[in-house]
Amino acid sequence: MWLRIEPRPEPSRLMRYLSPLLAVALMLTCGMVLFKVLGKSPVEGFKVFFLQPMADRYGVAELFLKATPLMLCAVGLSVGFRGNVWNIGAEGQLLMGALAGGGLALHFPASQSPFLLPAMFVAGALGGMLWAAIPAWLRTRFNANEILTSLMLVYIAELVVSWLVHGPWKDPDGFNFPQTRLFQAKAIIPVLVEGTRVNAALLVAIGALVVGWIFMNRSFLGYQMKVSGQAERAGRYAGFSARRTVWLGMLVGGCCAGLAGVSEVAGPIGQITEHISPGYGFAAMIVAFVGRLEPVGIFFASLLMALLYMGGEQAQQYLSLPYSISKVFQGLLLFFLLGSDVFIHFRLRLVRGRK
Amino acid sequence: MAPGLLSAILFATVVAGTPLILTALGELVTEKSGVLNLGAEGIMSVGAVAAFATTIHTGSPLLGVLAGMAAGMAMSALFGFAALTLQANQVASGLALSIFGVGLSAFIGKPYESQTLNSVPPLPIPLLSRLPLLGHALFEQQALVYFSWIMLGLVAWFLYRTRWGLALRAVGETPVAAHAIGYNVLRIRYLATLFGGAMAGIGGAFLSVFYTPLWVEGMVAGRGWISLALVVFATWRPLRVMLGAYLFGGAMITQMFVQGSGLRLDIPAQFLSALPYLATVLVLVLISRNRSTIRLNSPASLGQPFMPDT
Question: Which segments of A200-294 does DSSP mark as H helices, in order?
């Protein structure tokens, strides 16, 4: 008896949607084993990591708060990924969006205008797009690989943030801490549910999901992206511009990541610091894949990813495990997803007798 | 500039370039077989933490390096299983490996964050290390620096002067033809991937055991990604990897150069730290702008899965 992988005559639609669930199940199993190996009770670990964060109203609100930037980044990235545009620099675009939007807040410390906050979001979107335009331009003009350039720009964006909060933008009354002044009240996103931190940026994120859905499923441009991504030559023969695919994929990704940056600095943080994002831009890639590059899937996947972040905090607090355990789970999830995805195109077959 | 300072700068350049040479050489061999492993950053991170922890517990840097190498191979085997056996998308699998490796290394390394190792004394080469100017910079280095040169020669010799090197390149160019004349494409790709992982693991070990020598989360700081860019810069040729690595090594130590030169330059430290990343972007642009350079030199089947018997 012998297991063989063989191609399916047609890709399985069922497996396409089952695969993320399978990946989550495998991640959970692996997590339990990990807890066991670390000398913690797997049941206890599971409770602390996956149930406790959602135990009360505040916890659920925090879940949506953390899911907001993930949703935004992931829906933007999914547009590019569909067109085979590998923007892996959403983290940097998020930071630049935070700087552009936050910079506006710092520039108008006394403004009472109701347009300040919307203007910050616009500035954030532009900041993210500007940062994403660099790899897009380098790719279309000079053929430079966008994976490496977009990633290098993450490091540069981090250093720009660090320079600003240590230098020109440092709060003069801040006891020399590397952070800016706190944003004024008009520059803070209003809270949605009293007594929690979940804010109106969630609505922006859900709006982005809706727009993303319409773009991908109902617009000709979205269709062109999909064709170019799945069959590059077919796209070329049909006269779809490869340049436009790159530009569009990058700019949409940068725009959404920039919005996510504003949602953080004008939301739970309330100022610009060196720690704007705990890797949301990278985690969003996993969200996009687990969500099958579809807005509905991304919605749920971002909640799951937010849960992993919160579980990490809980595990640090109650199980005295390092916070980075959530990154281990994130990586495992993506690996298991890629593994499970094999069964979309292939199936296992039991073969009798020898090879 | 004082000769002492120049010698010190050359020395630091060589040190900073060594992990890049090691990792990029490994990645070059992997890519020559048609496999694009974007996981170098994750492999280096895990290699660094494995080597550091092992050296702390055993007191032996050699065992540390071996542990880094083994960890690197284990990581690349994980990638190989996803991308070669299961034929998952190579770009996505590599990204997964990077995210996973960076996270895993932070997780494992937490207890070691406050610890430091004794610095390992260098291994001067008799006579040569006495040479003026270059002696100290080139021949009073850690053993792994010499190792990187030896590996450079071995890789070049293997790829272009041996039958198995030819087979590996054939697999990277036209796996179908290599398969047809009886080479086991998947096995060769696995071996090349494992070699790449071992080298990146050693590169990580060099960072944590010899270079710093300590472990902090995120200490690899993009060197894995820069190594990937180096392979493109080198147009997949081993000797140019060394040239590129020392160029980047130089970019990484500009801070020291500026401080040492005594120039009163009012440049923010962050700008100097950004130089290697800027240089990477610049170099990619310069090399890639000529499309035919890339097309002629990159392995033809790079990143494409191969399934025998279909």
Answer: 201-218, 220-230, 232-237, 242-264, 280-290
